[in-house]
User: Fold this.
Amino acid sequence: MSDIKKGLNTICTHVGAIEDKEFKGAVSPLYMSSSYAFEDVDKKRYPRYFNTPNQEGLSKKIAALEHAETALIFGSGMAAVSTSLMAFLRAGDHIVLQQTLYGGTYNLVTEQFDNYGISYSFTEGWRAEDFAAKIKENTKVIYIETPSNPLLTITDLDAIGKLSKKHGIVSMIDNTFASPVNQNPIDFGIDVVIHSATKYMGGHSDICAGAVASSQTHIERIYQLAKNFGGSLSDYTVWLLERSIKTMGLRVKAQNANAQRMAEFLYNTPAIAAVYYPGLPSHPDYALAKSQMRGFGGMLSFELEATYDAKQFRKSLQMIKSSMSLAGVESTVISPAETSHAGMSPEVRAQQGIKDGLIRFSVGIEEPEDLIADIEQALEKVRSQEVITTH
Assistant:
């Protein structure tokens, strides 16, 4: 039985684990050495070469989770994104990127690619025809993100996979919001799957890491650049990440359920003007999300009615934290306009539909009744303040 065909929680728990042959410990031993023998060995190991025992073990686990042949672990999600993109792009090449995109990726492309002679086009939307319209003779990569950050748009994985193969283009996806628990893009024909492993793989807001999973051929090409860029991850963090992934299936499924409950609550709350969550039948891509995702994820975004101040609402929350990252076991909110997408101009944010009052909500594993109570008291506090102000 291959690793890929094992059950989710079995892969999370066992695949890639290192056997403690000396002491028979239940968990993988941690090899902290940054210096290994080079004589009379079958492999010359060095942390920057992504081949220490802990690095190799974790890569096997992530590859199995993403139904890929192999994987690499990086020091951050952006290290994974930038190295993967640059491995397939040269001066004179062109890339098509999804309109709704993580701000860090947008900044990388718009601030750096001109320096390397790489041209780029952002789509007008996120349908397959939007991507097809932007393809040129020198297009080498199509880059997507679904569900997208922060508006949870859904892109058709199968359609993008077929479009890319038709034109001989490498397809890449940021699969961070979905996680391997909810979505496996390789099954739909996507070539390269990228994660900020800081998020659902780490899951406890205490790890910074990235991951890329793909075919052996594609990973070898990425690796040749990665070993020179130096974006490897320390073995201690690799060990912590392997530990965290053991519970990823359990955590993410709990977050899926909580996010669905919270989305439904917010959708039916008069003070909320809009809710963006692919698990709501009102979402324009609900049917598509249902066809390619096993769960709708723990992320959603929403907007308050105009009479409510979004910043005061966030400050009035008592249990739900205002925090920069996402996907931890604790629930958090941020303003994308002030954080993840602050590098975009107000005009670009407006084009993407990211309003200044938009709140991104990373739903944790708390009891949903407690999350609802926190939101209700914050809304009441802001409403009371508005009443006092207007009188």
About this structure: The chain has a mean pLDDT of 94. The radius of gyration is 21 Å.
